[in-house]
Request: fold
Amino acid sequence: MATTLRPRGHVVVDATGLLCPMPIVELAQAIRTVAVGEIVEIAATDFGILEDAPAWAATTGHEVIGQLSEGERHTFWLRKLHD
Reply:
């Protein structure tokens, strides 16, 4: 059985059960709390996160370093690239 290595978030946001736009609002708040180079992990059940998180990262200049969907739960790892 293969093991998937997952990044470790310096801050973990559980946005399960929240609807758009709240997962991105929570992500934006969380990214402000970490240092440049650190990672925010966000998990959400709103399928909109699949498009919203990468679009938000591109717009704000941060980096998506991983994504995993397990059933209805979607997790993203984003690296803060600037203040």
Remarks:
- Helices lie at 22-31, 49-60.
- The chain has one domain: 16-79.
- The chain has a mean pLDDT of 94.
